[in-house]
Each structure stands twice: as C-alpha cells, then as structure tokens.
Amino acid sequence: MSAIALYTFGLLDPAVEPTRLADFVRRGGDIMASADGADGYLGRAHRADGGAETHAEGEDHGPWGAYALPDLGDFAGHDRQVHIATLSLWRDLSSARTFVYDGLHRDALRHRRDWFLQGSWPGHVLWPVADGAVPRWSDGVTRYEAMAREGESADRFTFGSRRYAA
C-alpha cells in the first residue's frame, strides 16, 4: 500500500482587488489549520527552521526538499513568482479527495476564479508515494510539468482521472 502526495500550484491574478486577496489569505490560514485534523492527513511541506515561509526557490523544507517552482511556457509571460503552491501527504486518495472537495476547502474552490489566473496548466497533480517516504518539492514540480506536457500516467494523475480513482 502506498500513500498519496498532492502538489498544487496556481498563479495569482495580478488584477485581483486587495479586498478579494485578503479574503483568500484569511481562508488559506483556516484551510491549512483544518488540514491538520483531517482524516488521512499525514503532513505537509514547511520550512525546516520553523520560520515564516517566503516560498522562495531553494528555501529549505527539510525532508520535503528545497522549495521549487514549475516553469511552463503556458504561463504566457505571467510571473510564476506570484503564486500559491502546496505539497502534502495523505494516507490514500480518498482522504485527499475528501479534504479537497468537502468543508472549507470546497467553499474556497468555488471562489478560485476570483483569485487565480485560468490557463491550460493543471491545478494539481497526485502520485503514489511509498509508505514512510516523504515527497519532495522537486517530485511535485517534475510531475506537474509532465502532467501539463504529456497528461496522466501511473505516476501522475488528477482527482478527475477515471483510471486511478479510488
């Protein structure tokens, strides 16, 4: 049996009004706090020194590796530094799906077009991780970029995949 890693990435819309962005920031803190108690949640990447995360490339996240960002031509000149990315580990696909599509996170998903640019790139990628292993940022970025270029496979898929649904 393997665990499931979830990497998410989104480019913030530079035209978002500050009040809408404040709503996103408020929700984000609440959502991350709710993940800590979610069934099947095994952990998420965070700075190794416990300091405030700047989400700068190379930032040390201990066993989760150095913070990394995808680089896709499809970003069409948008600044990939103005982003939100997460990397988390779940007991199974069902646990991750339940967290994402229920509760506080589900409500936030309904507003994602208020905060993020829409493009041809994926919003997330999932992949199996051996029990006891910790996914690394570089794993997420590699799979995310491959998903954008080549689509799904056994080692990268989305919640919408019919082949890998739990």
UniProtKB/TrEMBL annotation:
Reading the lineage from the top rank, the first entry is Bacteria
DUF3291 domain span = 5-161
Q: Name the InterPro entries on file.
A: DUF3291 (IPR021708)
> What is the recorded name of this protein?
DUF3291 domain-containing protein
Q: Which species expresses this protein natively?
A: Microlunatus flavus
